[in-house]
């Protein structure tokens, strides 16, 4: 049986944190290791430029950071193809053809695009760029260039996949059944709150632990986590349900430890400082293999480059095959 093709990826705009890990990376690694899929992961630098066109250095730097984050989490280049989006001109070509199959008003109604435009007032002012408004078209091209059947992604990506499906249906209707209609595989992963209790985790909020964080940084961040505000002295009775340290213990500590933490906290037999130290230690241990692999790749940038080059070369071959079919269907195969 042919393996189902998976296409997924991220914008290279920053390092990945544990929210990304539990939200999507862990699942990707599991899907990879199941051996049931043929997975492509794109580093979406073209898409990153749609809202960072004025900051090419940032995008460039984060291409390698993202690759190292993938590799350190267990994405294995022997099994999974990691490639750089801008090095696949076929995707850009397809984007142009697809742009005839989608209306401006449909793009303006896309909920993900709408939300993002609202968040990016500072960059776009009152008028959004053609490139940003159109990035769902380019994302449809990302997926279909590789005949991606499954797209593991978060809920926020749902409107983008729906948009891709519409484009595929329209293309197939007009030019013939050539393209594969992708399906989203929603991450079952848990959404993790920040150390401050915020629903979202992120750099600007300063409430995230990054996969590349050192032991010292992890400890420092954990020590600043928000605890039950009613506890001042150690023997004050605490409520772990409103404490971020307890919340994180549930992610990184053993069942036995979690039980003890909650019991002792409620009974006023536990100091918050000791509780945090124990958590920091567990997070450090949990992330150790990831951190060590990352350190290895940081010391061997030539290996990271080789992986990206080879992944991109392989991806390019696949892309050319799709492009040939598309051009035939669109009557653009002039000299063949
Ligand atoms: N939109 C995704 C993000 O914001 C990145 C992305 C680009 C992507 N092309 C894709 C994801 C194709 C899945 C499939 O991170
Ligand atoms: Fe939170 Fe632990 Fe302090 Fe209880 S003892 S409030 S669980 S840090």
Strand order of the largest sheet: 1-2-3
Main pleated sheet = 3 strands, parallel
Per the CATH scheme, the topology name of the largest domain is Rossmann fold
- Number of discrete domains: 2
Order of helices and strands: EHEHHEHHHHHHEHEHHHHH
Q: What is the averaged pLDDT score?
A: 96
**Shape, principal axes of CA atoms:** elongated
Supply Rg: 23 Å
Strand content: 5-15%
Topology:
Layout lengths: L3 E7 L7 H17 L2 E7 L1 H6 L5 H18 L7 E4 L4 H10 L5 H6 L1 H9 L1 H4 L5 H4 L1 H11 L4 E4 L4 H18 L7 E4 L28 H9 L20 H9 L2 H12 L5 H28 L1 H29 L7
Parallel strand pairs: 1-2, 2-3, 4-5
Helix pairs in contact: 3-14, 4-9, 4-15, 9-10, 11-14, 12-14
The structure holds tryptophan (TRP) and iron/sulfur cluster.
The site of iron/sulfur cluster has 14 residues, from α12, α13 and α14.
